Structures are given as C-alpha cells and as structure tokens.
Structure of Secreted protein:
Amino acid sequence: MALVLALLTAAGLLVVAGPGRAEAASCGARKVRTLSFSTGYVHVYKRGGYVCAVTVAKRRNGTLKWMFASVQARGNRPMMREGKRRYRISTDAVHAGRRCVRVEGAVGGGSVSSEWILC
C-alpha cells in the first residue's frame, strides 16, 4: 500500500513539474534563451560559467525522430549529442566562463544554428 501511494505521489509531482522543470533539472541551470525552428526548439541553460542546450520536438506524438543538440564555447570543441528520441535530447554542460557560445539543434528535417551568443 505504501509503495502504491509513493508511486502515485511521484507521478503527481511529475505532472505538476511539467516538461520545463525536467529540462532545467537535467542541466541544473536557468533558461536564458530559446531558439525556435520549424520542427522544434533549442533551449539554452546557464549556471555560473556552464552552459547546456536542450532540443525539444514540437510534435510530441510518441514516434522516434532523429534529434541533435550541440553547444560550443568559443575556442573549444562542440559538445554534441544525437540520436533517435521521442521528445527531447540534451547536451552535457560545458564550461564557457565568460566566453561566447554557439548552439545548434535539429529535429527531423528542421534545424537551427545560432551565431556566437551569451557574450
């Protein structure tokens, strides 16, 4: 009985938190920018000198889609992640310090690429 109650409570918390909270928790930061494109969005999160990117599909129909997320601090190699996902894909946080970053994301055939931002 206690296990069932715990599972129902956890499920309720996930519903209340919503997808925006889950994205921020994956990077442990606050959202500072959103780039939109035809098939999705790239949310950029920053905490201290660390930055990460989360690509989210506009259509959440449960089918697998090819997705891509990338964040690059100026002077460093990009941190990229790609694969077939249903809803979202995120990068690990990269240390940017006070340097500019470039962010890219794609879902299916749509994509976006930023200039150097957050300088």
Q: What stands out?
A: Confidence is low (pLDDT under 50) at residues 1-24. The chain is about 20% helix and 45% strand. The longest helix spans residues 2-27.
